[in-house]
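@here heads up, posting the sequence + SMILES for the zinc ion run so it's all in one place. Ping me if the SMILES looks off, I pulled it from an old spreadsheet.
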Amino acid sequence: MGVISDPTEESAVREFFELFKIPWEFYRKERQYQVVLCTGDAKPQPASTRLLILYASTETEFDARLKIETRLHDHETNISFPSGSLPLYGSHATFLSRGAKVLSDEDSGETIGFVDRLGDQMFARLGYDLFREVRCLLTQGQPTANAGTPTLELHIAFLRDLIVGCGIPLVEIPPLPDGYSFIVCLTHDVDHPSIRRHQFDHTMFGFLYRATLGSLFNVGRGRLPWRKMFTNWAAAAKLPFIYLGIAKDFWSEFDRYVEIEKGNPSTFFVLPFEGDPGRSPEGRAPWARASRYDASHIASKISHLTSAGCEIGLHGIDAWVDSSRGREEAKRITGFSGKETAGVRMHWLYWREDSPVILEDGGFSYDSTVGYNDAIGYRAGTSQAYKPLQASRILELPLHVMDTALFYPDRLDLSPREAWKRVSSILDNAVRLGGAVTINWHDRSIAPERLWDDFYIRLLNDLENRGPWFATVSQAVSWFRTRRSAVFQKVQYDSGAMHVKVSTSGGDKLAGLRLRVHKSRVPNQFVECADNHTNGYVDISLNERIDTLVAL
Ligand SMILES: [Zn+2]
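bot reply: prediction finished. Complex structure tokens:
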């Protein structure tokens, strides 16, 4: 595929094609392409191109020449196509219907995309700016109203279907580890590893209130079974004995996590310093953000976790605004884990637009903060690790599911049944679209008074049945880096067979990549939806390099 775009879109184009990993390059006049994708007013006319895809939200010279009647719209809208629908954040154009409609405005039903013929060529005219949408998703992200839509993955799915539906076979390295259905990263923000450290502070009084009256109230509104209320009351009664050192501290649940995760390694993000609320976007962070423990207090737990195969990352305080503070915070964690701290997730998910660059300067290889405090889903529209457009090396593994967002009364406040429905839809998307699902279950969430352990165990069982690769965040990010390193050295389609040569940096030995060759569909069958061609591709294991001929 040759791509012609505005120079200002270059970083978004490059990142888009790391997420939709197909053979492509910026258009070169002397080369021949099966597919040319252009944006805005670009106007190539190479006769050898079988499919010309034109994305633009404005009226182009191409439209004028072909007398395509265009109407321009400024407002946001949802577009639908046979296998889904997605929100557009920028302006868009609609067309007076011609050819075969492939995209329509969800409200008005007007055509936003169609496919037509131009002599021997096919062309697709799509009335929005793909790479502007990509930039918007990867930098500003989606509002919570659209959290549940993996928008960027759907842009990819649509484009893939369009190409294959126009009768052109396509080679791809999908975001799927070889032999697994998707990737899952179990993570735990360690905010409160001990209730003993909270004496007569807001956390202790909060716990007492929620365990006693709060539990009774939740029984009243049908959110808590009686059994759990009594467990919480017993926990509250035990508190004095915990302070005296006679009873077990029920917030120290590291061993239990290792036990219920049954050897599937998870990632714990640990706070480096005690008593420091750090900075907030407005100045000083609220005092409540300061932790009552630091890494030294759980040193023995940390070494137990690392020997169980778990990863210890930094739960950052000021790393998101200050790279030298970030280095200090990471160093503190490294001191206890004995392993270089590769990654970070910010406490309270603090974040601003230049954080990726600051974290990169701080020496981090990944971040996993981009998610919602008050929703679950796809803030950046993707389930893949991506490189923020302003950064040069750091990868962001977005956070998708957080326990407190699901259950806290001032967040989504869902019943277990409603929460299950939302989480299942994210796992269904992972099976359909690939990528990684990142889950954050806080350290004390499986203990009183939250008692979200049964939900978590059910979730682990459901995951086991779906066959994902359980990876630490470092492992997942390293897998995505290997995939990013893949280079298509040769892709040639000749008399019913595809010759593909790919090399990668090797790297990750934990899970391999796969090469997927999508067979073409009968031209003009693009309106058949994606679900109809589940067998429309061939998968081949890809380890380090491959040179293969695939019969189609
Ligand atoms: Zn936290």
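MO: The pocket of zinc ion is lined by residues 189, 191, 315, 347-348 (CB under 6 Å).
MO: One more: DSSP finds 14 helices and 28 strands in the chain.
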